[in-house]
Amino acid sequence: MDFLRPSTWEEALAAKAAHPEAVPIAGGTDVMVELNFDRRRPPALIDLTRVAALGEWGTDGDELRVGAGVPYRRIIEELGDALPGLAMASRTVGSPQIRNRGTVGGNLGSASPAGDAHPPLLAAGAEIELASVRGTRRVPAKEFFVGPKRSVLAPDELIAAFRVRPTAGAEQFAKIGTRNAMVIAVCSFALVLDGAARRVGTGIGSAAPTPLRATAAEEFLAAELDWESRAPVPVAVAAEFARLVAAAATPIDDVRGTAAYRRHALSVLARRTLTWAWGGMR
Amino acid sequence: MRVNCTINGEKRQADDVWPGESLLYVLRERLGLPGSKNACEQGECGSCTVYLDGTPVCSCLVAAGQAEGRDVVTVEGLEFGRVQEAFLSAGAVQCGFCTPGLVVAVHDLLARNDKPSDPDIREALAGNLCRCTGYEKILDAVRLAAR
C-alpha cells in the first residue's frame, strides 16, 4: 500500500487522478476503522491533512464556502453563529476526540445514510464542491447521495468544500440515539425556516438508503406558516407536517431500531424542531 | 515506510511502518510506549487518546503517516501532577486500562476549563469508556483535580 502525501490541492488532485483507487483520508474516523478491522485494503491512501486550503473557510458573495477538511470542532466554534443547524449536528458527532478530527468532507465522502452532517446540509440547500484535474463542479446536497455509502463522486474527484447561504431565520437539528454521546443516529432530522425567502428546508437522516429531503412536507409548511404575523403554528398544521416528514422516509428494521419506530420518531422530531424553530423566530 | 515525529519532546523515528497502520500501533509496538492502550480500534473507547499537535485524538484513528513531522504527547509525556494524584486519591483507578486515556482527556479539559461543571466533565469524558469503576470515582477525581 502506498501513502501519498500531497501538500497542495493541485498535488492532491493530481494524486487522485493518477491513483483513482486510492482512498482519501482526513480525520481517519471512518477510514482507519475499516483498515484496523481488515475490511478494506486500498492500494493507496491519500493523506489530505497537509493540504492547508481544505482547512479554510470564508465568504464568497452571499455564500459561505467551507473547506472539506474543517473538523467538527471548528464548525462548532467558528461557524456556530452562521450555520447553527450544522453546528448543532456537529455537537452530536462522537466524542471530543472524534470532533477534533472528523470532518464534514469525510462525512460526505463516506455518504452514510446516518451521517450527522447530511440533514443540515440538505435542509440548508447546500452545494457540494467536487474537484478533479478536469475541473470543479457543484452538486446540490440533494443530488449528491445515490445509495447507502454511495455518492456521485467520480473516481478521480475529491470533495473540496461545501457552500451554503446562511439562513435568515431559524435552524434546528435533532437526533435520536440510545444514549447522549458517542452514538450513531437511529434517525435524525434537520429543519430550516428561512423567514426572508419564506422557504422551509428539511433533512432526514438514518431513515432511508440515503439522507433525503422531505419536499412535500417543505412545500406544505411553507404555504401554511403565517410568515407575516408569525402567529403560532396550528396544531393541525404541525401534525400534518410531521406526518409528511414521516411519509417521506423509507426506513428499515435494523439493530438500531425498527422501521415503524423510526417513522414515529421522525414525526416527533419534525413537530418538536418546528416548535423550537418557529418559537425562536417569533 | 519511515515515520519521523516528535514524541514527548524527543525526535523519534519508526522504520518499516506499513502505511495502513495506526499511530497507536507505532507508539506501542515500534517505539515501546505502551501507555496508550489498544482496545476498540474504532475510536469508541478513548483508551488510546494522545495529543496530536496539542489536540486530543484517538491514536487508533490516525494513520501512522499522518503523524509525520507532527508533535505527539502520550500519557507517558505528561508530567505527574494533580490529575494523576486525584485519580489515585479518589480511587478512580481500578483495573487501570482506561486510565491513560482518561488522564489525557482530563488534562486537556482542565487546560481549557479550570472550573468545569458536571455537564462539562461528562461531555469531556464522553469518549472514554471504563468497564469497572462505574464512573462515579472518575467524576470525583476530576472534581478533585479541578479544585
TrEMBL record, chain A:
Domain of life: Bacteria
One example GO MF annotation: oxidoreductase activity
Keyword Lipid metabolism among UniProt keywords: no
Keywords linked to the UniProt accession: FAD, Flavoprotein, Oxidoreductase
Ranges for region Disordered: 97-116
A Pfam family this chain is assigned to: CO_deh_flav_C
Occurrences of domain FAD-binding PCMH-type (ranges): 1-169
Protein name: Carbon-monoxide dehydrogenase medium subunit
Record organism: Phytohabitans houttuyneae
Lineage: Bacteria, Bacillati, Actinomycetota, Actinomycetes, Micromonosporales
Automatic annotation (TrEMBL), chain B:
2Fe-2S ferredoxin-type domain: residues covered: 1-78
Source domain of life: Bacteria
InterPro entries xrefs: 2Fe-2S-bd (IPR002888), 2Fe-2S-bd_dom_sf (IPR036884), 2Fe-2S_ferredoxin-like_sf (IPR036010), 2Fe-2S_ferredoxin-type (IPR001041), 2Fe2S_fd_BS (IPR006058), Beta-grasp_dom_sf (IPR012675), Diverse_Oxidoreductases (IPR051452)
UniProt keyword terms in alphabetical order: 2Fe-2S, Iron, Iron-sulfur, Metal-binding, Oxidoreductase
Entry GO MF terms: 2 iron, 2 sulfur cluster binding; metal ion binding; oxidoreductase activity
PROSITE patterns (UniProt xref): 2FE2S_FER_1 (PS00197), 2FE2S_FER_2 (PS51085)
SUPFAM superfamilies on file: 2Fe-2S ferredoxin-like (SSF54292), CO dehydrogenase ISP C-domain like (SSF47741)
Signal peptide location: none
Protein name listed in UniProt: Carbon-monoxide dehydrogenase small subunit
Organism: Phytohabitans houttuyneae
Gene it is expressed from: coxS_2
